[in-house]
Amino acid sequence: MLPRVDSLSMTLDVLPTTTRVRRAPEAGQDEVTLDGRPAEGEALRRVVAFLDLVRERAGLADRAVVDTANTVATGAGLASSASGFAALAVAAAAAYGLDLDATALSRLARRGSGSASRSIFGGFAVWHAGLHSGAAAEADLSSYAEPVPVGDLDPALVVAVVDAGPKAVSSRAAMRRTVDTSPLYEPWAVSSGDDLVDMRAALLAGDIEAVGEIAERNALGMHATMLAARPAVRYLAPATLTVLDSVLGLRRDGVPAYATMDAGPNVKVLCRSADAERVAKTLRVAVPDGTVLVARPGPGDRLLHGDVR
Ligand code: ADP
């Protein structure tokens, strides 16, 4: 899981994942419950492959019983995979007795879902793409996330969930198709590198307007890149565009608000903490059938011992 470009995220104070991993020497296979139902197909395969990696490192063959619950919609472009595999990395490492520091946990989480490497950390984190040439072990060591220094910034992220259903095309499939077929992919990758340099400076300066502008242009560019894939990957829904229009309206009214979107139809609006309620109110009017919630930067992973029910 080595990305083409470095990337940045903000870990939120809402919508956590809680994951319990118990070693089960008596079991013949891993048993995985995701959101209260037995995991199957690709979701099960990904967790088992991740556990295999942990078992290999720990030198233990024990199967495991995994119970994981997201509080965010799964597979809807709201980063459940980032949250889920960060939690699984922490819980599985503990269950199998791996003593890993935050950097090593970030690297491990990356193997489950690339974006999970960042979700180990609270607040803003950058994921280094790392080295792509040379030995696999060297490449693995070079690609991990770490916290990003931030100046005087008091941001909020207003999340507009316009469709909580699972996306038709998974992020992974969308990414592969885009890389393989989109003529816009290469320029987007190059401009993303520039965006990240600008973003680090904007975060350090505590300049919310610049942070928002960069996030918005990068996200819209990513969707344009996917739209140009063959066949097109289109996550933008009519309600997505309605939210984007509202964000423009807020800016026209003097409220610094900027949209960003992952691979999915749902929109996150970055603004000043002090403006968050106004932004949320505007979005609730714009998409009355959606769900709007206000988030702020939150903590990273936390290991809970014992019975956490
Ligand atoms: P999202 O935008 O929600 O991250 P993705 O398509 O990128 O959507 O990833 C969704 C997939 O991530 C799920 O189908 C499942 O395979 C995996 N996933 C999500 N949450 C968890 C979890 N808590 N534990 C293990 N795997 C998870």
Give a nutshell description of this structure:
With 309 residues, this protein is an alpha+beta fold. It is built from ten helices and eleven strands. It has helices at 41-58, 80-95, 102-112, 116-119, 136-142, 171-181, 185-205, 208-227, 238-252, 276-286, and strands spanning 7-10, 17-24, 31-34, 37-38, 63-70, 124-127, 145-147, 155-161, 257-260, 267-272, 291-295.
CATH architecture of the largest domain: 2-Layer Sandwich
Task: Compute the average pLDDT.
Answer: 96
How many helices? The count is 10
Strand content: 15-25%
Protein name: diphosphomevalonate decarboxylase
Domain Mvd1 C-terminal: 158-289
GO molecular function, one term: ATP binding
InterPro entries: GHMP_kinase_C_sf, Mev_decarb, Mev_diP_decarb, MVD-like_N, Mvd1_C, Ribosomal_Su5_D2-typ_SF, Ribsml_uS5_D2-typ_fold_subgr
Explain what this protein looks like in three dimensions.
Residues 1-132 form the Diphosphomevalonate decarboxylase-like N-terminal domain. Keywords: ATP-binding, Lipid biosynthesis, Lipid metabolism, Lyase, Nucleotide-binding. GO terms for molecular function: ATP binding; diphosphomevalonate decarboxylase activity. The structure is a single chain. The protein contains 10 helices and 11 strands. The chain has 309 residues and is an alpha+beta fold. The chain folds into 2 domains: 7-147, Ribosomal Protein S5, domain 2 (2-Layer Sandwich), CATH 3.30.230.10; 155-295, Alpha-Beta Plaits (2-Layer Sandwich), CATH 3.30.70. The protein has a 4-stranded mixed β-sheet with strand order 2-5-3-4, covered by helices on one side. β9 (257-260) and β10 form a beta hairpin. Adenosine-5'-diphosphate is lined by residues 17, 34, 42-43, 46-47, 68, 70, 74-81, 84, 88, 170-171, 262, 264.
